[in-house]
Structure formats: C-alpha cells, structure tokens
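Continuing from yesterday's entry. The apo prediction looked reasonable, so today I'm repeating it with flavin-adenine dinucleotide included to see how the binding region is handled. Same sequence as before; SMILES copied from the compound registry.
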Amino acid sequence: MVKLDSKVPAGHISEKWEKHKFEMKLVNPANKRKYDIIVVGTGLAGASAAATLAELGYKVKAFSFHDTPRRAHSIAAQGGINAAKNYQNDGDSVYRLFYDTVKGGDFRSREANVYRLAEVSNNIIDQAVAQGVPFAREYGGYLTNRSFGGAQVSRTFYARGETGQQLLLGAYSALSRQIGAGNVQMYTRREMLDLVVVDGHARGIIVRNLLTGEIERYAGQAVILATGGYSNVYFLSTNAMNSNVTAAWRAHKRGALFANPAFTQIHPTAIPAHGGAQSKLVLMSESLRNDGRIWVPKKPGDTRKPNEIPEEERDYYLEVKYPAFGNLVPRDVASRNAKYVCDEGRGVGPTGRAVYLDFADAIKRMGRKAVEEKYGNLFEMYENITGDNPYEVPMMIYPAPHYTMGGLWVDYHLMSTIPGLFVLGEANFSDHGANRLGASALMQGLADGYFVIPYTLGNYLGTERPQKVSTDRPEFAEAEENVKNTIKKLLSIKGKKTVDAIHKELGHVMIDKVGISRTKEGLEEAIKKIRELREEFWNNINIPEDDKTLNQTLERAGRIADFLELGELMARDALNRNESCGGHFREEYQTEEGEALRNDEEYSYVAAWEFKKVGEWELNKEPLTFEYVKPSMRSYK
Amino acid sequence: MAEKINLTLNIWRKESPEAEGYFEEFKISVTPDASILEMLDELNNDLEAQNKRPIAFESDCREGICGTCGIVVNGHPHGPIPKTATCQLHMRNFKDGETLYLEPFRAKAYKNIKDLVVDRSPLDKIIQAGGFISVNTGNPPDANSIPIPKETALQALDAAECIGCGACVAACKNASAMLFVGAKVSQFALLPQGQPERYERVQAMVNTMDEMGFGSCTNTYACEAECPKGISITNIARMNRDYLKAKISSHSMQY
Ligand SMILES: Cc1cc2nc3c(=O)[nH]c(=O)nc-3n(C[C@H](O)[C@H](O)[C@H](O)COP(=O)(O)OP(=O)(O)OC[C@H]3O[C@@H](n4cnc5c(N)ncnc54)[C@H](O)[C@@H]3O)c2cc1C
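Holo prediction written out below.
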C-alpha cells in the first residue's frame, strides 16, 4: 500500500493556489544553475516546462523521440483552447470554468487541481499572444471565441482549425530560444526506456539513441515526464502514429502509481476506417454536429445508397432518443449510440461500422454558400481522404479513441508517488476526471508547463536540496542492463508474427471490450485475451535487423510490449469500477433511460494502481470530496 | 470495397548514413482508399513477415500537420497532388499499372540517414537563431491590450501555418530554405509583438540559413508549388525587404 497524499493546501478553493505559492519554498537565482532538470517530452506540456524552467535559470536537458519538438502530437489539435477571459461578457468566470470542468469530468476529478487550472487559464492566452500566436480576431482587432460542448459560454480561443499547431509552435519558439542560448540541451531522436531511482528519488533516465542504437544514461536532480496519452493501445485512434505509453509505463514499473487507466475518451466524429489497411483515424471537428444530422437506415443490412433511402426509412436516432439535445449530446452519449446502431446491423459503409452525418437539410436551410463558409475546409479534408463529396452524399463518421484521462497519479504539485518525478500534460491523470471537455487538454498541458511546475519544482528542490548524482552509480548500471536485456530479448524471438499484427489484435480486443461500452463478462474475456496476446508476443514476433541503427520495428515492439501490459490494467480498472461515469460506461450500471449511472457512495475515488509484477497490481484509493460543486446526475433528454 | 490497383514501386534504399543508396523494385496491389504511407505499412508488414528489412520512412500525425512525413513521389516532394502532404496522398490518385519512384527529400543540408529518412535538423538551428519573440513566461499584458486588425492576424497565420516539413528545400534546385525562413520571419514581421526584434531576427535567421548550407533563391517558385500548406512566396519578398533594410539601417551596424 502506498499512502496517497494529494497535498491539497488548506483554505477556500479560490485562495489555495495563491496562498500556496507564497508558502512554497523557493530556490534562489544563483542556486538554480546548480540543478540539472530532465524533461522528457517536448509537446505542449514538455516544451512549455523546459522553456520556462530554463528562463528561470535551471539547467535543462530535454528529450524527445521526434526529430524536432515541433512534431509532437500536440501539433494536431484542431478545435481550440479554453480560458475564462469572459471577453464575450456572457457570464464566464474562473469559477464557471472550474464548475463546468468538474461537472464535465462527471465528479471524478480533484476540485483543487481543477480550480487552479481554471485560474491560470487566462495567463496562457496572454502568454501565447505575447509569443506571436495568431489567434482568430474580430474586425475590431480583438480576440474572438467559439463555443464548445459542455459549456453555455463562448470561451474557446482558436486559430482556424490549427490551434494546437500554433500553440505548439509558440512553445517551441520559446524552447528554441533557450536552446539557442545554451540553457536547454535538446536531445532529439532519443527514447526514454527506463527511469533511474536513487534512494527512493527519481534521479535519471536511460534512453536509446534511435539513430545509433546506443543506450545512454542521463542524471538530474528531478525528472519531468510530459510524454502524452495512450490512446494508441486501441491501435486505431486519432493519436499520432508514434504516441505511446512507454515512458509513463516504465516509470510505473519503477513505482509510480497509475491512476484511472480505464478513463478514456472516444470521440464521436472521426472518419471511419476504410478497411484492414487503415493505420490511424482522422478526427472531424465536433462542430459538424451543429448542423449535420446523424442517421442510419431503419432496416438492418440495408445496402442502398444513402440518397436512395427515403425519409421515412431513416432513423435519426439521436434526435428521437434525446429530443432536447438531439445531435448535440455529449461525446460519450453520441459515441455509445453509434456503436449500438452498428451492433444492430444498421451501420453503413463498406465495413458496416459507420453512421451518416447528413448536411442535405443544412444546405436547404442555410444555402450551400453558408455551409461552405462554415465547414468548407472540413468538407475538403473529408473529400481528400474518402473521395466522397459531402455536399452531395452524406458524410460517414464513427467514434474513435481520442484522449486518455487516466495517467500517472500526481499530487497537487504534479509529483508522482516517486519523489522527484513530476508528470505533466496528458501523461498525468490530474484534471479531467472521467471525461475531458473539448479544448481543455491544450489548456491543461500549458497550465502545467508554464504556470504550475515552475513553482512546485522549486518547492521540491528547495525542500529536498538533492545533490548531483553520478551516472556511474549502480542504479544507473542496473537500469541500463534492464533496457539492454529487454532489447536483446525482443530481437531474439525471431518468430512468425509481425509486431503490427499483434498490435492490431490488441486493438480489436480493447475497442470491443474496453472501449465505448463495457461489461463484466467482456472485461474478463479481455483480460484473458490480452494475456494470451502477451504470451504470443513474447514468443512469436519477428523483428528484422539489429539494434545498431535506426530500427523502427524494434521501436514499435518496445511500445507494444508496454501496451500489452497497460491494456490488462485498463480492463482491470474498468472491472473494478462498478459504475458508469464519463467515458467509462458499464452496461450493468445505467438508468432506465440508458444513461450512465454513477455510484458516488462507493466509487467517489481515484483508483491508483501499484505495480507488483506483470499482470499483478494493488489498488490504492484516493477519496474524492466535493465541497464546492455538488455531484448531480447528467441529463440530456 | 473499391477494387485494388497494381503498382510497380521503385524505392530508394540506403542501409546506413554511410552506405551507398540504390533503387529496389517492388510489385504491389493496394486498395485505392489507402494512403501512400498505408501502402508502405502493408509492404513493410509483408517484408517483416519474411524477415526482410522493411523500408524506413517517417510519419506521425498522418493528418498533414506535423510535417514528419515527406517522400519525393515521381519527382515531386509530397507527390503530384498540390497542397497535400505525403500522408494525405491517397492511392486513388494513381492508375492501375503505374510505376512510382519513391525517394527521400534531397538537399545538401539534409543528411540521408536511411532509406527515405533524412535529417532536417538544420531547420531547427535556424529557428534557434531567432525564430521567436523574446518573452519570458510570466505576466505579459492582457491578450486584448493590443488590438491587431483581423486581416493582419490572418496574414500572420497564413505564414505561421508552415509545417516545417522542408519540402520547399527539396523542391528547389538550389536547395534553398527561403520559403521556410520567409514564412517565420513574416509571421513576426506582420505582428506588433514582433516589431522590437524585427531586424535582428531576419539577419540572425538568414545568416544561420547560409551557414547551414542551404542555397540561395533564384525565384523559380518551385517551393511554393510543392508546399503542402500553400505558403506563398510573397513571404520571401517580405523577408528580402526586411533583410535589406536591416543591412542598410544603423540598426545592424557593428563597430
Ligand atoms: C486529433 C486531435 C485533436 C485534438 N484537438 C484538441 C483541441 O482542439 N483542444 C484541446 O484542448 N485538445 C485537443 N486534443 C488533445 C490534445 O491535443 C492533447 O491532449 C495534448 O496536445 C497532449 O499534449 P502533451 O504535451 O501532454 O503530449 P504530446 O503532445 O503527445 O507530446 C508528447 C511528447 O513526449 C515525447 N515522448 C513520448 N514518449 C517518449 C519517450 N519514451 N522518450 C522520449 N520522448 C517521448 C514525444 O516525442 C513528444 O515530444 C486533440 C487531440 C487529438 C488527437
């Protein structure tokens, strides 16, 4: 058992962070130079942290498996970033953003963290604008906003459909400035494969140089992981091809607890898979649901072209089932219902796993020109990928794994259960509870990196005063040996199956049994199957070539090995949680109307799993209390 | 499901940075709905199953925004379809029986690491030299304290959309990085926040570009034509103006 101390400061929620900033220890400017800080990951969370810490005077070593920080998966975020600026004068406030986020997370997040997130959200926008991020503006020259699901105010800042790109390029420019100035040593094409723990504290990492295959040791007085989410456990997801759980997972195996792994978000509007060759799924903006109407044929197995199916034989199932919200129900509700109609055999398209999103009525109502103005670029993108013209035939969409709310457990300081190991961005579990609201991940990543870690890291260093450690220590040698052995083992299997083939099979199990909707039987079956796959992986994969050069198959194999362990933990977590909440839907726990049925009496806690050995974990609970936002049931009827 | 098409692929192979490169021929059959990278995934899967060396190529987001992918297809960086990154190039754009040549981005400044993988890190060096606004994290003024005309913000965004894939360099017969640098210089030159460092920035970036071994611009516009984001060459003109101004203004005089 691990004692989970969230370290939430005392006081009224609106004063906690301000007060705590004063109470925390500082490191004086001259001493900062003496600290080597390791930052793994240079997406939004990592790049913002690395740049900011270097500006403060720390010696930063930053690592990424990409060839440049600008490639991180953050670059692909489209929709926008939230902040409580209330520029629209429509009633927004820090408190309201806090409230919406706690409610949106279905009462499974830590109130104090969420409040702080809302509190610093405004600084993020100021910072980004100062860096030259060209957000969308009104004719008067002031910033404009759009609205997003789960909120009744307009608080989302954006730059066309490229908000993630522009924010990441902002953070990357700040980081580049520090690299140029010699304050950050940037190590690209390096993959962290183990964490080094000395006397119970995180003191270094082992990485593989992806070009030469060399295994390298790096020491620091603290280690920060900002390595992103794990949606690729599903094989097909909207995440970038190389996104993976390895850094977090290896830290987990060194003692960092993994929290709420089953909390994943499945986005309802992705372009469906075209077949077995599909490598990843492309997200279509959720905004399409504002004007498009979702339907499937009433009759199972109807193979007619959509335009040949008369009105009375179409089932606009969301409008029928949820008259108040219709096509605008929250992400999880929309995803679940798409799965149900496809399970009934009413799915469309070549694979039968798709539903229509039809703009015919919108074109009639608003005119083609207005539709073009609003959605032109999305329609173009859709046509480019599918070859279909959505002005003429309905689009097809299907849910896709998109975001993982779970991640390494962290306290209010964003420190994991291993002292000196901090976790930022999507890699931690901190702020979104069981469901993340749109445009809140970019906000969290940047809040963590720009505005939280600079304070909490200082507090750790100021309190612990860690000394420099040498990479000659036995702990480093042991970790390096561990990494080398794993690689050796992987290369020596020389079996019959490809790494991708196993990943695909794992993906099938995960999406089927640990995806949109889950049951006890399904989860038990998933655990069994995942264990079998793991066996097969370690006995029957084949990796051509050696480890002395760029070997992309070997890279992938290491990541899939970790996914095969994580997948089981996700299923266990889902099995443990006998309730439905947010993105976690257990079919046994629903209301008469088919809505998620939370069980606050028994499950108002963070499930933090402690690694014992492969396939064996111990559950630790961090109870959640809600002092400010009182738990209520969602209803979208 | 759409009918498969048969293609002959001639793919650039190179085992290591030091090895000699060569073309290897493959015959394949692929669904037109697949992207060219998915076609390579399938080919690699087959090769791996036979314990043969798969083709090394890079990609990440597969949505045309991360800039990781980049293959020269039949002489065109990112292939023959305008404003399309390699990952968004679908096989329905090719005909049954066609022969494709797949090569890496070639330029003096890019080292060919393996097969279709090149090292584009010199582009990062240019950004590190000045592709930023020098502002520390802290308490900058409220985001709305400087109004910026909508048109100006959009123009800056047009330039900022560059995905850093480096295709412009591969497209240019001189292997010049002027479009890449011009886009970054323009983004900041257009915005009020970028003014204080405007002239130092352009000099630092252009000088580093030269040092990195990128060639000069001779206005053939090949870069604009191949850019997957359609970055305009007016950005190069803007950079040149600023560079010239910086050179003659007292601003940059050094004694
Ligand atoms: C298609 C799409 C659209 C989205 N749109 C939005 C949106 O509109 N608004 C919003 O708020 N959110 C959105 N999200 C979510 C959001 O983009 C992500 O949650 C967020 O960007 C994650 O940032 P990060 O910094 O935590 O991780 P990432 O950006 O994933 O960065 C991870 C970094 O870690 C490095 N790394 C990982 N493992 C290792 C290792 N072992 N060794 C070395 N380096 C490693 C990588 O190289 C990379 O630099 C979207 C997500 C997707 C998939």
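Comparison notes:
- The longest strand of chain A covers residues 395-404.
- The CA atoms of residues 105 and 435 of chain A lie 4 Å apart.
Will overlay with the apo model tomorrow.
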